[in-house]
Amino acid sequence: MASPTESTAIEALLHEERVFPPDPAFTRNANVNDPGVYERAQSDPEAFWADWARQLDWIKPWDTVCTWDPPHAQWFVGGQINVSANCLDRHLKTARRNKAAIIFEGEPGDTRVLTYHDLWREVNRFAGVLKNLGVNKGDRVTIYLPMIPEAAVAMLACTRIGAPHSVVFGGFSADSLRERINDSQSKVLITSDGGFRRGNVVPLKAACDAALDGGACPSIESVIVFNRTTTDESQTPMQAGRDHWWHRLLEDAPRLVEPEPMDSEDPLYILYTSGSTGKPKGILHTTGGYLTQVHATTKCVFDLKDEDVYWCTADVGWVTGHSYVVYGPLAAGATVLMYEGAPDFPARDRFWALVEKYGVTILYTAPTAIRAFMKWGTEHPDKHDMTSLRLLGSVGEPINPEAWMWYHEHIGGGRCPVVDTWWQTETGAIMITPLPGLVATKPGSATRPFPGIEADVVDEQGNSVPPGGGGFLVLRRPWPSMLRTLWGDDARYRQVYWSRFDGRFYFAGDGAKRDEDGYFWLLGRVDDVMLVAGHNISTMEVESALVDHPSVAEAAVIGRTHEIKGQAIAAFVTVKDGTGATPEFAAELKEHVSKKLGAICRPDDILFSAELPKTRSGKIMRRLLRDIAEGRALGDTTTLADPNVVSSLKDRYESQEG
Ligand code: 6R9
């Protein structure tokens, strides 16, 4: 980040002219097609959110919609509600009773369908299991499972009895699991013997044993193990008195458990987000406001209808999996496709084979996946009939305009609206996004704040930046699904999100610019912004200029120290399959960026790489690339998906320099 004495505005250099207005036929049938919704929500946001809250089943109505004692908000104060009752019981009174809630496909190709009635039954039984093990309202439960229906069953069962869950992504190590269990002081750990990934078994139970080894997690009383990967139970070592098979516990569990009446502000879950360094932050979400906003956004942003087959490819270990695989879609009565494995197993067309097989209508995935598909080539989607698709979504990182266009054309057949949705673990639900029946989209822009959300772009002093300029993305008003605090560390909550602008607004940590139409363009994390010869340049814009070249699939850009300019631009580039990574091509790319954004953005170094270092949720880790480019020892690599990628890049970068 720039120091106050230097130029502080983030430059806005990339100009995107393409505009895609909504198809009138789509608008006619859209869940939201009245443009007045924005104004109405702006003039009375509390009334807007209260209307959405009323669409849920409340055990007791609220007294006050919102109280705001900065930086702490409460929503639907005095109300009582149960999340599992809204995701399940509510639908049993309607024709959704026998509708598929979850269509599951395992990586090996096994399939299961759970109707809403089936899911309700399984959640009741598993809630009974938790009760039998002594889990009471308020006790924490850690869930460490693959992407199988039991993950949703376990989460919903926790909400049924009022036990906040902490889901830990199945790709995290034993150390990460231990740290999260101990921070949340969980009483029970739910896992499986393993899960399937690229044809191998990920040994989850073994990781749990390592995490708990030698009494390292004293709060854990019981471990529940689902049998996913073996036919022979005896292959999984079980510690007597501590470990129990899921299916055995079901035998003695009550079959019906009444939903616990939860106060709107009772904790719903904790989800740890690692950030780039330091101890993971336990993001705390509460009940009524969270459910209201995930439900509203699912209906409005994805235009979800009863007949849709909805597929969000995120793992339940991330917030996207919480809000848009489980809680939002099930509250809305959707049919959710859930897939366990990798997109390239057994072949690079697995996603498209699934879209064809199940007639997927709505697909929500991440730019990292889209750029991998671009790299692999169009022959994989082209093999399949994907005409069932009617809406596409993107989340997780800024989507480069060319990746947006590729998604729109090659996956959406040019006919599906693309919703680029900006939000965070902390925000709980979508915050900036097009409404597909109302808002014309521009490739690379998340467009406008969702109705009822007040976002702004401000400068270093917190003043609104005029249209065309860049700055810091902030939120000016509390929203129902906002984090309430960091678990056990309110001081850190205040410091991380509220101290930057003296408590005046929530600071998201992202850079953004707003164009003349009021559209928001996300520029990446502000810690990544480069300072080149006095100009603050966003990594996102230079990356997008690189991806704009027809032979480039993905790029990561960083600033490295430079004697004269302050920082020089170094680019790590992945080319599409079949393109030669030659010095001539590197020269061509430098020229390409220079033409597109101006000479100031011309990269000094280009290094070709088949892979870029990413977090396990697929976000590019530029911090490590900076370490490489500056010849430093690599910083913390524990959150990387594949640590080999950086070490080999480091070797190559150094040999190129020498
Ligand atoms: C939902 C999720 C949050 C960070 C966020 C931003 C980046 C997410 C984005 C996006 C640009 C989008 N991000 N969606 N940037 N455009 N549509 O990803 O949560 O894992 O907490 O990450 O991801 O930098 O601040 P989380």
Automatic annotation (TrEMBL):
Its EC number is 6.2.1.1. CoA binds at residues 197-200, 320. It catalyses: acetate + ATP + CoA = acetyl-CoA + AMP + diphosphate. Belongs to the ATP-dependent AMP-binding enzyme family. GO terms for molecular function: acetate-CoA ligase activity; AMP binding; ATP binding; metal ion binding. It comes from the Bacteria. Keywords: Acetylation, ATP-binding, Ligase, Magnesium, Metal-binding, Nucleotide-binding. Catalyzes the conversion of acetate into acetyl-CoA (AcCoA), an essential intermediate at the junction of anabolic and catabolic pathways. AcsA undergoes a two-step reaction. In the first half reaction, AcsA combines acetate with ATP to form acetyl-adenylate (AcAMP) intermediate. In the second half reaction, it can then transfer the acetyl group from AcAMP to the sulfhydryl group of CoA, forming the product AcCoA. The lineage of its organism: Bacteria, Bacillati, Armatimonadota, environmental samples. This is Acetyl-coenzyme A synthetase. ATP binds at residues 396-398, 420-425, 510, 525. Its cofactor is Mg(2+). It comes from uncultured Armatimonadetes bacterium.
